[in-house]
Amino acid sequence: GAALRRVVAVLRFDSWALPPQALGMRGVAADSRHLLFSAEGRDVDLRITREAGGAWSLAGQILGPDETGHILLEPAAGGPGHRASLDALGEFRVDGVTPGPWHLRLETAGQVIVLPAIDVGGQRPD
Description:
The protein is mainly β. The protein has one helix at about 20-25; strands at about 5-10, 10-15, 30-40, 40-50, 55-65, 70-75, 80-85, 90-95, 100-110, 110-115, 120. The longest helix has 4 residues, at about 20-25. It is globular, with a radius of gyration of 15 Å.
């Protein structure tokens, strides 16, 4: 088959880049993070939330033309990753993600959208 076209997404919004008081979320801000990426007419809305026990969950939605596909979440250091299919609304969810840098890739019928590395569970900058 034809090679998938590779598109690199750009970070448009990161809730951790805002001062905590701007979010009205003092104290809980470090337990969740909202990221928004854009790539050629599509947006990727990503929310990272701390789970009980120290792991994290990633929930996201692909906004734009209807697509079927899946996401691949792979540790930057190598090793086993996670895979999740997009549902009818373009949403996905991955639970039990360990802290550290991860690479998220969205594969659809015609292209691969590559997000910048995401530091899951990192320290919120003060």
